Amino acid sequence: MASPRGSRPPLEFGGPLGAAALMLLLPATMFHLLLVARSGPARLLGPPPYLPGPEVLWSPQMLLLWLTWLVLQAALYLLPARKVAEGQELKDKSRLRYPINGFQALVLTALLVGLAVCAGLPLGALPEMLLPLAFAATLTAFIFSLLLYLKALVAPASALAPGGNSGNPIYDFFLGRELNPRIWSFDFKYFCELRPGLIGWVLINLALLMQEAELRGTPSLAMWLVNGFQLLYVADALWHEEAVLTTMDITHDGFGFMLAFGDLAWVPFTYSLQAQFLLHHPQALGLPMASLICLMNAVGYYIFRGANSQKNTFRKNPSDPRVAGLETIPTATGRQLLVSGWWGMVRHPNYLGDLIMALAWSLPCGVSHLLPYFYVLYFTALLVHREA
């Protein structure tokens, strides 16, 4: 049952019209980036070199490959976990339980891919399949979001998200009506948040590195840096998987098209943009500049990890000795806001660290093209919205 009109939060993203526009704009942007990254001019704001037809985008084999990837990650999710953690308290005062085995899934995936490559799997051919794979992921996200929306129609009011319950089907389909859609203990939002997309991202990066080695004899230093930096980011996210349980995505946002498309399609196919660019536009990178970029990434990671660990510790248990002495102020929502520690130096230190790392990922691509810096621009806009 919908909540009374007066208790609903204001609509985000421009309401139903904005949500409908984003459902078209986000996939279009993703395909634009995939097309221009491999073109000669590689202009972020220019037209793509061509518009792919249905025969280029649709491939039953690529759909099967994509579904196989999702099934593999789901199977790894269901393996015994090194730890089972409780989420934040829900409206009905209950707490859901989550397996903490994302890093285990990353390691097992790496072992399986390594064995498959040794057995002759042509991983270097994967970059040529990105367009139909991205189409399969987008199609999956739309169908999955529809099933999630239908499931939410029979969910109790206590299971609905604060923002995706406007009564408008387009807006609610986009934002997501149900907060934690599950079948038995399998949590769809938690599974998609860090598993298929993030691990798929580093797998695509690795495939791009291998194809560059096949084309040029050895991967470039720039390609090594991009792969290393982004692998560190993904491994860190999965090692600290429990921290995602206190983020807005899990505690506040419903699971609809916005998160489903973002997790399953946007992350692997646009976050790998720097590696895609380097494959088709190799960059000469000397050791002095590479060392400075490594230092920048290390500084960003230090800020990002320190701030996020402090925030997560405080959200889980404000009485924890590591954060008990930090100063806070009350907010309109009744929660406490940190104003000391990392948060005493800058309002959003975790975002600052994220942006410094994002810049370090782009700098190996040189400064002659804006395209590799799309992630920095997009991420800035995303964090400004999240901050608000």
TrEMBL record:
One annotated Gene Ontology cellular component of this protein: endoplasmic reticulum membrane
Catalysed reactions, semicolon-separated: 4,4-dimethyl-8,14-cholestadien-3beta-ol + NADPH + H(+) = 4,4-dimethyl-5alpha-cholest-8-en-3beta-ol + NADP(+); 5alpha-cholest-8,14-dien-3beta-ol + NADPH + H(+) = 5alpha-cholest-8-en-3beta-ol + NADP(+); 4,4-dimethyl-5alpha-cholesta-8,24-dien-3beta-ol + NADP(+) = 4,4-dimethyl-5alpha-cholesta-8,14,24-trien-3beta-ol + NADPH + H(+)
Domain of life: Eukaryota
Known pathway: Steroid biosynthesis; cholesterol biosynthesis
One Pfam match: ERG4_ERG24
EC number of this enzyme: 1.3.1.70
Cellular compartments annotated: Endomembrane system; Endoplasmic reticulum membrane; Microsome membrane
Family that this chain belongs to: Belongs to the ERG4/ERG24 family.
Its job: Catalyzes the reduction of the C14-unsaturated bond of lanosterol, as part of the metabolic pathway leading to cholesterol biosynthesis.
Protein name: Delta(14)-sterol reductase TM7SF2
Organism: Neovison vison
Phylogenetic lineage: Eukaryota, Metazoa, Chordata, Craniata, Vertebrata
Gene that specifies this protein: ERG24
